[in-house]
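pasting Polyprenyl synthetase for the record, 340 residues
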Amino acid sequence: MSLDKLSALYIPALEAEMQALLAEDAPAFTPYYGMLRYHMGWADETFAPARVDAGKRIRPLLCLLVTQASGGDWQQALPAAVAIEFSHNFSLIHDDIQDASPLRRGRPTVWKLWGVPQALNIGDALFTLAHLEVKKLTERGVRPEVALEVLEVLDRNCLELTKGQYLDLSFERRERVSVEEYMAMIAAKTAALAAASTQIGALVAGAPAGCVAHYRAFGYALGLAFQIQDDILGIWGDEHVTGKSVSTDIQTRKKSLPVVYGLERSEALRAMYATGPLTDAAAVAQVVRELEAVSARAYAEEQVRAYSDAAIQHLKAAEPQGEAAEALLELTHRLVGRLR
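structre below
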């Protein structure tokens, strides 16, 4: 399969590039780099080398695939891919602090182990390293004006991210959130980075403006479909496949798309969320039944199909070439057709 073949080529090169940037440069900074490596999945809590789940590197993979599919050299785009992954991870560290999340991917979060001040600093470090990496594009033969455009795309994404995070945080204090508000939040917080990743890949390859626009639209629609599919799996997924309890999203009263849709349409559901606790299995099951009664799952699945179709249409319009084109289509199907 093209995706597995190219991932096996790209991901080790990406990991090596990132690890080289986080190598200790003086004994005094051993804990500093240790915290960075810990978050990225290369070290344990004592800073000893380890290999743990740190995510699938989907966003940098999108960037590299688009570069190759557009006729460019994927190795030339590696600094951009690193910048994308570091930007994503700085936001995760800050997000964990703001949400007071004790765990990420089954391990204690950076702030939980070393405190909020150090976690903020480590997140800032990744943000800064991302910007420094973009400048290295010129060392790979990318024209300075293109590197500058890549930097602007990355910065605009970071601004969108803060807007999305503002909405997400504000939702926690509100009983009612509209579907439109929710979609605006995931567009800024999730879809924007996927769009930036595909746009940057096309820019580095020197693709025509029309193709760049289609690649960006492809990433944007894919990001929306991916997040909504994740929302569905958070309630109706197979725990053995997703690795996450299907009760968690309801117990924590997470305002995912099915829940927001259901709350708009069900007085009974609004009463459940406004009054009693949702911690026991019976309460969770009652919420799920009410969501299904108002077709919340069907609505969310319809949105996944619509955005997936839009993503594929834009991908085809961009006219990708070769194995990378096949891999992009395969990745799209995997992301939005994940096992339940």
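The mean pLDDT is 95.
The domain at 2-336 is CATH 1.10.600.10 (Farnesyl Diphosphate Synthase).
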